[in-house]
Write a structure and sequence with these properties.
single chain, alpha/beta, Helicase, Ruva Protein, domain 3, Rossmann fold, seven-stranded mixed sheet, two-stranded antiparallel sheet, 11 helices, 9 strands, elongated, binds S-adenosylmethionine
Length: 297
């Protein structure tokens, strides 16, 4: 237990100072801002209140609540799990240990699918490995005429995704199915009718999972992270399974990690079934999304 965690601050300013110390001792880089955000969440304060009313007394209950959250963050629990939400594509998503926290680079996937589907009347879209539901829900929200199918192996992730769909009023247009990749889509008459299959599959090579920052490796589900020996195990299966469901000219859009886009492109070229292939870089210049168009035969 750190020394900062043992002190009993009696004012807002003292509590903030204790929070910054606890987080810094835990190795949190952005300790100052995160302590403010945790106090906002725990006590309903704002940065301005903390500045202007720093000498305001805090109750033992408020102090206990904030100190507990500072402790969790110092143990490297992701800030988003503590605050309970993450913004994605302009929408607020509930997050938790059942699913990956939505990442900003995944917005590129949504963008690519939107670009493709805006020209398709009443598109059917499948989101494979939906996790928190962020991709499916953002697409359903942006495309009022679309029908979505979202699958995940994890029943706990499914429950979270359903709750996020309800939160954004799209639950009647997203069918959530627990199961393996595109398997749950079979026997639903969807073969050859899907305008876009989209997925952000797990893509960390198995032997790199242990090197992830503690926030990721110790708190986010391994099922959402590990992508087999080379990180592309699920991508490989999606390349071969998605074609059957896509319309001619339909889009398969997959997120990849650093240095994986080229390998995936080569796999698709060798396997056939897809015509045009292109990649999209993220803000850091990493080829992050690979788009395949189903061949028109
Ligand atoms: C990287 S996370 C992506 C979650 C969400 N789509 C996002 O972008 O934030 C991958 C998801 O795929 C799911 N998953 C892993 N293997 C799967 C499989 N074989 N079939 C279905 N879902 C799978 C995991 O449970 C996890 O929710």
């Amino acid at each position: 237990m750190s020394r900062a965690a043992d002190i009993r601050p009696t004012t807002l300013a003292g509590l903030l100072r204790a929070g910054v110390s606890i987080l810094s001792e835990g190795g949190i880089q952005n300790a100052e801002n995160e302590a403010v955000w945790i106090m906002d969440f725990a006590l309903g304060t704002s940065r301005l209140t903390l500045r202007l009313e720093g000498q305001r007394q805090v109750t033992a209950e408020d102090r206990g609540r904030a100190m507990e959250l500072f402790g969790r963050r110092a143990a490297r629990e992701p800030l988003q799990f503590i605050l309970g939400t993450q913004e994605f594509c302009g929408l607020e998503f509930e997050v938790g240990p059942a699913a990956l926290i939505p990442r900003p680079e995944t917005e590129l996937l949504v963008e690519e699918v939107l670009r493709h589907c805006l020209a398709v009347p009443h598109p059917i879209i499948a989101d494979i490995g939906t996790g928190s539901g962020c991709v499916a829900v953002a697409l359903a929200h942006a495309l009022p005429s679309a029908s979505l199918y979202a699958t995940d192996l994890s029943p706990a992730a499914m429950a979270l995704a359903r709750s996020n769909a309800a939160r954004h009023g799209v639950e009647t247009r997203v069918v959530f199915l627990t199961g393996n990749l595109l398997g749950p889509l079979r026997r639903r008459g969807l073969e050859g009718r899907v305008a876009a299959v989209v997925s952000n599959p797990p893509y960390i090579p198995e032997d790199e999972v242990a090197d992830l920052p503690p926030e990721v490796g110790s708190f986010e589900p391994k099922l959402a992270l590990a992508g087999g020996v080379d990180g592309l195990a699920i991508h490989r299966r999606l390349l071969s399974e998605a074609a059957e469901f896509l319309t001619p000219g339909g889009l398969l859009a997959l997120e990849v990690g650093l240095g994986q886009a080229d390998r995936l492109r080569r796999m698709a070229t060798a396997g056939g079934g897809y015509g045009r292939i292109r990649t999209k870089p993220d803000a850091a210049g990493i080829e992050r999304v690979v788009c395949f168009l189903r061949s028109v035969e």
